[in-house]
Amino acid sequence: MFQKNAWYVAATPDEIDGKPLGRKICNEQIVFYRGPDGKPVALDDYCPHRGAPLSLGKVESGKLICGYHGLGMGSEGKAVSMPGQRVSGFPCVQSYPVEERYGFIWVWPGDKDKADPELIHKLHWADNPDWAYGGGLYHFNCDYRFVIDNLMDLTHETYLHPTSIGQREIEEVPPTSRMENGSAITSRFMHNIMAPPFWKAALRGNNLKDDVPVDRWQICRFFPPSHVMIDVGVAHAGHGGFEADPAHKVSSVVVDFITPETETSTWYFWGMARNFNARDQGLTDQITSNLSKVFLEDKEMLERQQVNVERTRRPLLSLNIDGGGMHARKIIDQLVSEEQSTS
Amino acid sequence: MFQKNAWYVAATPDEIDGKPLGRKICNEQIVFYRGPDGKPVALDDYCPHRGAPLSLGKVESGKLICGYHGLGMGSEGKAVSMPGQRVSGFPCVQSYPVEERYGFIWVWPGDKDKADPELIHKLHWADNPDWAYGGGLYHFNCDYRFVIDNLMDLTHETYLHPTSIGQREIEEVPPTSRMENGSAITSRFMHNIMAPPFWKAALRGNNLKDDVPVDRWQICRFFPPSHVMIDVGVAHAGHGGFEADPAHKVSSVVVDFITPETETSTWYFWGMARNFNARDQGLTDQITSNLSKVFLEDKEMLERQQVNVERTRRPLLSLNIDGGGMHARKIIDQLVSEEQSTS
Amino acid sequence: MFQKNAWYVAATPDEIDGKPLGRKICNEQIVFYRGPDGKPVALDDYCPHRGAPLSLGKVESGKLICGYHGLGMGSEGKAVSMPGQRVSGFPCVQSYPVEERYGFIWVWPGDKDKADPELIHKLHWADNPDWAYGGGLYHFNCDYRFVIDNLMDLTHETYLHPTSIGQREIEEVPPTSRMENGSAITSRFMHNIMAPPFWKAALRGNNLKDDVPVDRWQICRFFPPSHVMIDVGVAHAGHGGFEADPAHKVSSVVVDFITPETETSTWYFWGMARNFNARDQGLTDQITSNLSKVFLEDKEMLERQQVNVERTRRPLLSLNIDGGGMHARKIIDQLVSEEQSTS
């Protein structure tokens, strides 16, 4: 239950530097590598000769060489060379539209003709020297929609992440959710509270006092097919919160690309973009390390939720706090339904 | 193929002290914890909000708090609290009759209305200071009836446990089996033999000579749904065997609660109760350690038997030595059949 | 998709010395052991009493004793003893024709009446003191025919084994394939090339110069049901190659018994027989160690090929280089088809 005609984050650039990468995206088994011009290529990970995975091969001058018998693949999915063989009659393998943008490799697993690079989700902070980004990749054995639900309802931070970003005050302020231009938004604003450990560290990282009351915000935005961007931060209380002058706040974006591997497994690209102290790589590393622990706490819960929901097949409750996830699922349902009716 | 309307041992008390325990019993996925009065509670391990396993949560003042979004469950399976939510309309989850008795947590996975605590199997030695008990828990990947067969035919000790409790003389004395009051009994009495290593150690543990001939007994009793209690011991030869004066013997009960997890997997609670030198905790620990090795030898054999029987689906032979297990299976068949015809 | 009426290598003699061995061959779960005369016996690995795997038992004076309750099996699959039991009425288990020959244990998993030991594949070099043999056993999770394809097309050495036996010149010389007397043959002859590392070491092992041009040969022969014997070697260039006088060459046979475990898994007995410096055990050990690394490189490729082919179910290409494997598959298809039409 996911869109095929959409741009998904499939990898980070370092994963395809110098060698091919095999990865399943939306049930498509794909090999990613850099072609002759250095641009990423995405093909069915299947050698048309004897079915070997091309990702076990190597890349020579932008040509993907099968590691079994040396068949060379061109970036269109056509065999272009093989020692002692004429390859012009070989069957082609599928190629996938793929782009490198904003520090990610994006793939379009569906109908090639509809793949317009302009549809790639815009990241205003990427390629901007005033912003820094750090992140990682986790594999979750669960439906990607459980990850979206998780990120569109941060109430869970109180319970699942009590030592980092969770605090009692989160659940005391009800969130508000709405749909807007085909995206779903859930916001929560907390006033005059003490920052939890993760944000105390961030305040110190921006040379701000961490022992005074703050205003805290969480503005979660779901964008199809499965991205969640969350404006998060704290400002010294009374300075305007989210709108406060940069001198009084630490403000960042939790970046979540939640790419289905199969119906019940997910590649979760997580990270944080920030525009304070952006040139401090040590701070980036520290924040990334802290985040990696937070998102690992989600992994066990979501994988066990998957097992439990498969076991019972009961409908889930949808409370006020689940509004953001509900909106997101409505958007997904609508887009998948449209996609299926036109194919 | 097991009774649902019966009391099974599900856990030991230490397993639910201070935290919830998730465990599948007779195909029911259950969370066990201590309620407000300290008494055990057993619920479907499923949060009615979003399906998270409640066993990943925590217990606060006897209320089970879901670890995902903080829903609080009462001991009847009804949500009783959730931050910022009215929970009165939430669907309930199933609760199971559960009792703490004799040092075990007992659960009734079937029809709640039929769960009478008086039906819990009596353990005459429990809560008696003249007796000591030590035991453990193993998970076996086999049908629980293979464990019952194993314990109702101790001929296997000669082959599977040759360095501890096995000896040639076991197979030289044919056992006798019978049914009695809805239980199955198999007995074997050996006279004027040398004790095997396990029993030599027990004799020394009771300050008795271990290098003189003994009389040895094994009286296996199966009680539904799946408990096996075995009177075992040795007495210096000629003093009356099982009936000998305590001054001349070491006498104990092998305690086996064989609780189905699924049709093909089993929670095996094993242990030994003894009424010699009962206050010697070091002796209890030593006996428990020795037993843990013995029952581990059964694990590989029974799990491989399960695989082999599934592979061939041939009928098993039933010899004289298998009489106890056959009686036990007849009792089980009868009870399951009755249960199914009335439900 | 394999012959049942054929002799397969099932084990090496050391594997059944002193203890039974459980191994699945062509979907038959078999226990191998040495009977009263020291000759190998092969039976269904199933105790007729309670279904325990007989391979968990032990062998006493050539009688297989079940490790659970002591049932003794005779080499015809008939129970011959059990403590305190008459066994004459016990059901028999299947026995399989089995032979020890040429340093291997051979089994016939099909129709017993057709098992003629004269049909065992002849190994001219075995039991010949002028020849030495060293080998090993790997378990591959793939269809055995992928291993045959691999060995009947050594083009892959260039890509999969570049640091040992692979070299560019292999793919510059097209192989020739043909069928002959129910076997398939693929040959490749390379002239005036430098030897790759594996063969340089072999030249030194035969006290020959390794830094001069050589002629190299590869003559792969497939014999049903699934054996591949490959004449391989190098001779100093210009001395006649394969036909050169022993003083100028290193010549050996790659020995491959590719025994199906199931349709998608394989016991791969690999090794090398050589007739130079045959009494040098250190050389045998070194060659065997080098080969073990080579064949491990095939394992990952073939297991991933299996997954990929199962995923896509597309037909494989058959190029000139695949001729040997194609002939082998034709022979297999023919024999399996004959077998099925007469059964």
Automatic annotation (TrEMBL), chains A, B, C:
Pfam family, one: VanA_C
Presence of keyword Transmembrane: no
Residues in Rieske domain copies: 7-107
Keywords associated with the record: 2Fe-2S, Iron, Iron-sulfur, Metal-binding, Oxidoreductase
Family matches, as PROSITE patterns: RIESKE, RING_HYDROXYL_ALPHA
Membrane spanning stretches: none
Keyword Oxidoreductase (UniProt): yes
Protein name according to UniProt: Rieske (2Fe-2S) protein
Protein source organism: Neopusillimonas maritima
Upper lineage: Bacteria, Pseudomonadati, Pseudomonadota, Betaproteobacteria, Burkholderiales
